[in-house]
Design brief:
By secondary structure, the chain is an alpha+beta fold. It has helices at 14-24, 30-45, 50-63, 69-114, 119-128, 153-166, 191-203, 219-237, 251-255, 259-270, 281-292, 297-304, 308-322, 329-345; strands at residues 137-143, 172-176, 179-185, 207-210, 243-245.
Amino acid sequence: MTDRGIPERYLDGYTRILEEVSATGRRLTREELEARRVLGEQAAEAGHGLRGLVSAHLSATRATWPQVLAASDSTLAAVHQAIDAFAEGYERAQRLAVRQEEAARREFIDDLLYGRSDLGRLAERAERFGLRLSHAHAVAVAEGPAAYEEGAPVPRRVEQALLARFGHRNVLLTTKDGRLLCVAPGSEEEILPYFAQQAHAATDGGRVAIGRPQPGPGGVVQSYEEALNALELAERLGLDDPVLRAVDLLVYPVLTRDRQAMADLVLETLGPLTTARGGAEPLLDTLTAYFDCGCVAAETARRLSLSVRALTYRLERIHKLTGADPADPAHRYMLQTAVIGARLLDWPARDV
């Protein structure tokens, strides 16, 4: 062992090379340089630090340094060549290890989010990445103006903010299909809202959906799917909230659980609007705005850039065509449910 605890085998042949160079002034051969690279790779794989390895080489250099000045220059060039080749091999091994780690991490994330692996084996692999799947976990999914890519500035900035605030608290941050994902313990309720805040701020926009905490190895998949569904619902319903919580949107999956029943309600209630001049969409947009504004006519008119008189005419037209009065509480629930169903089913753009 050297004075820094580096095994002598990583210096194998080094002093002999220096002695020969000192005597002949030659440069290192291609075979000798490749041998130094191989030793550098082996040292990296064994977990030795580069600083200690370089120090061990310099100590060996001092022990064999020539006394003749003319030989010193060629020896110094050889030291440079040898250590440079050794460091090149060391870095090559490190890059390979990083790529292998990234590949293993990506494979784990794919298995975690799609449930393609044995749950027991998945739980074992998860501990390597800081997750204990025996506990409940929740997933937040962020969509930005542009696709997120692993290692890009925005994901790095969000990760740094999370680490600065929470440290290493079993949080997994990754990208998937152009989205930014954060997996956190279900008991750590402050992590995902903070992630949502940082993701929104980092892109000056975008939207984040947070799934409910779900237990067990399959809980991450369930929470992830809830977050994705929340983003899809927001797109269909035109919701403009920057942060969506799946727990607040549970009524919508309930409404569409029986798709045929919802389709029947939409067609029976709103189908007559298709006979209006200009089709159903202008009147459907009027109903959507009217219900979103709490059935306040003045606010609805302002939002639609209409006069109150024009809005009143539209509401009367809807009443005449459908037989349901939007201003009548007895009819309002059926109409509003049908309007929500139409948005969920993308009617009338699509047949239902």
